[in-house]
Every structure is written in structure tokens, then in C-alpha cells.
């Protein structure tokens, strides 16, 4: 490397200069979120959360088998499925339901420290989900029930498949704190 090139590298990689700048103010963990924190009263009926699509792979099927302990051949034996008229491995209903976990989207970033916990989840399996199907989950706030220091947020969730058909729907309820500054 020539002395000119070495000088340029030293100027670009001036560690002391950038380290000093990085340590001028205290580190703030909140700067590492990609949404502003919200309290119960910041949410509105109609708020919608489109979660990332997911193709149901053999890995997802295998992981669900490990997590659930469900070893029924309809979920893991292609011949068994074909002999019963299914086009491929048939996804477990809870495997499908797991696709609407709000943690897959931005909502946990928004709810941040105001989330107390999940209260209830219901669902209806409306169409079969098979290996290779791509699912498009969506959550929409349909009810807000204020309480003294908290509130209950109710989502209606849907999952569409690659053909635009709803394969699962249902509701989820979460207990969320109100902003303590407003109490």
C-alpha cells in the first residue's frame, strides 16, 4: 500500500474521532426500536397490522412437530396424506394459528413496556393449509375496552393463502397499560 493510500485509510478509519463522537452522550436503548411506544389510549379501532408472509416449509412442519409433540402422520407422512385425498402434508391447526402471532410484526415494538400479557385467543380453521402454501396474516383492532389503569385490546385476525382465500380467522385479546402520566 502506498503512503497516499495508507493516509486515506487512516483518515477514513479514524477510530478515536468516531469513538469520541459515539460516547459523547449516554447510550439509549429506546433508540433501537423502529416504532414509537404506545399506551392503551394511543391505539384506535381499525389499526391494522399486516404481518410478513410465510411459506409453510418442511422446516416449519418439523419445528412444529418438535414444539407440539404432535406426531400424527397427516402432518408428516406424504403417502398417508395422498391416500386420504390430500395434495401434500396437512398443516396442524395450531401451526397455522401461530402465523398470526403479533410478535412477527411491528406491534410488539409499539406496545413496548405497556403490554402486560395475552388474555385469550380463538380461531376457526376455514380451509386446509398444505406444505408449500404461502400465508398472509393480518391483525385489526376491533375493540378497545378501557379499565382503571389498563385496557383490553381485541384483534380480529385473518390468514389468507396464496389464492386469496381466508384459511383461518379469529380473535386475540391483550391487556395493555394506560399511560401512567394520564392516570
Automatic annotation (TrEMBL):
Q: Where is the MaoC-like domain?
A: 45-148
What is the name of the protein in this document? Answer: Acyl dehydratase
- Name the species this protein comes from: Anaerosphaera aminiphila DSM 21120
| Entries under InterPro entries matching the protein | HotDog_dom_sf, MaoC-like_dom, MCH/BMMD
Lineage, top-rank taxon, reads: Bacteria
Amino acid at each position: 500500500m502506498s503512503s497516499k493510500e495508507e493516509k486515506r485509510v487512516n483518515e477514513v478509519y479514524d477510530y478515536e474521532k468516531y469513538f469520541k463522537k459515539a460516547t459523547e452522550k449516554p447510550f439509549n436503548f429506546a433508540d433501537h426500536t423502529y416504532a414509537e411506544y404506545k399506551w392503551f389510549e394511543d391505539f384506535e379501532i381499525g389499526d391494522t397490522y399486516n404481518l410478513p408472509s410465510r411459506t409453510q416449509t418442511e422446516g416449519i412442519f418439523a419445528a412444529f412437530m418438535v414444539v407440539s409433540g404432535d406426531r400424527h402422520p397427516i402432518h408428516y407422512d406424504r403417502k398417508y396424506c395422498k391416500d386420504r385425498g390430500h395434495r401434500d402434508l396437512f398443516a396442524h391447526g395450531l401451526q397455522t394459528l401461530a402465523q398470526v402471532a403479533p410478535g412477527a410484526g411491528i406491534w410488539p415494538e409499539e406496545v413496548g413496556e405497556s403490554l402486560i400479557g395475552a388474555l385469550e385467543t380463538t380461531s376457526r380453521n376455514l380451509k386446509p393449509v398444505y406444505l408449500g402454501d404461502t400465508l398472509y396474516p393480518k391483525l385489526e383492532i376491533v375493540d378497545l375496552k378501557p379499565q382503571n389503569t389498563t385496557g383490553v385490546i381485541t384483534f380480529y385476525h385473518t390468514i389468507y393463502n396464496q389464492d386469496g382465500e381466508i384459511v383461518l380467522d379469529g380473535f386475540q385479546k391483550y391487556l395493555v397499560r394506560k399511560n401512567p402520566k394520564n392516570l
